[in-house]
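Work Package 3 (structural annotation) set out to generate three-dimensional models for the target panel prioritized at the project kickoff. During this period the team completed the workflow that converts sequence records into discrete structure tokens, so that structures can be stored uniformly alongside our sequence database. As a representative example, we reproduce one entry of 429 residues exactly as it appears in the project archive.
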Amino acid sequence: TDIRYRYSAAYARLGYNYQDQYLINFTARKDASSRFGPGKQIANFGAVGGAWIFSKQDVIKDNLSFLSFGKLRASYGITGNDQISDYKFLSTYSANGLAYQGVAGLNPTSLTNPNYGWESVKKLEAGLDLGFIKDRILFNVSWYQNRTGNQLVGYSLPSITGFTSIQANLPAVIQNRGTEFELTTHNISGKDFSWTTSANLSVPRNKLLSYPNLANSSYATTYVEGMPLSISFLFHYTGVDPTTKQYTFEDVNKDGQVTYGSDRKPVFVGQKYFGGLNNSITYKGFQLDFFLQFVKQNGYNFLGSVPGAFSNSANQLASVIQSTNGGTGVQNFTQDYSSGLNNAYSSYFSSDGNLTDASFIRLKNISLSWNLTEKYLNYLKLRNVRIYVQGQNIFTITKYKGLDPEFSGSQLASLPPLRIIMAGIQLSL
């Protein structure tokens, strides 16, 4: 197979700096890619950004002497994306290894679509950077908004067409918006002892701004205009029926029955915010570093994943086995796949009943090391000796019931990350 990919770009940049206080930059570029069809290969992009270092103003120096640095910044730009396979705009074929009357056979491998072009992302960002007490405390906050249009996707097709997808531009506008905070403090800076702390927090949000004719598209039961992309269409769980001992669900359209096509509602599943806290402490030749990770999110618990699925073919927690007859929110067990109990479980598997708080705090990394002092190095006739102990995934604090809260976003089972402890010696002659 001979695959040829060609990409070329022309780029220009203009910047202006006035008294090291006012900064502005302009960029422009023209890109061309062989991954698009005739008339769609070339696109124009550009950006503008500006900043004001207000800490250099005399009024700030005279009245806010504790403020060692301050900068306001903002930028807006449009970027492109051609990260797709080659020749998708053509009808392509591959040899199938079979022959008819001595002629090799071919299989169609993709449908032609010469009409798709560059994916575009409009990026808007604003930020504030601050330094206090001779930059012993550094703080910055950034707000961003990215709007993506003409997404390059494999648009879903009915398999009766012979293909399950075709390369196309999705006629949707997706917005990713969020705020990010970073804080670094030099708590103690001494000759023999130092302590530095850094923390970050991200609060991301996304949603589908628009999708023309979404109700008649292949994604009518996947996305909802004005809602996040990470939604799932789920039944609303209403508890265990005390008489039948089986799961029950809300009849949304009030037609007297709960059906897959009419009674599921969009529910957000995913992260609300996340971040971390890192500390680095040194004392003479010793150094201690540790990193805490935290995530606020919801996810599927053990009743909605395997192993742990409520069926006769998977292992169960002791609390599930002991809660028969629906006593603690678990319906009766059954081996009859034609029974109402099994149908109720199938609906439960696609309901918000197994959604739970999957937030957690995890000691992700910790390291303790000791560098031998010059006295010992001279005695051993070595340049450097470092003895260390490192650990990963030491402990997790969570109320989540399942294998691991970090991978609770889907109903597939994921084993928890391994707890790893290492020790070693590094020598330099």
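The helical segments are 58-63, 318-321, 340-349, 374-380.
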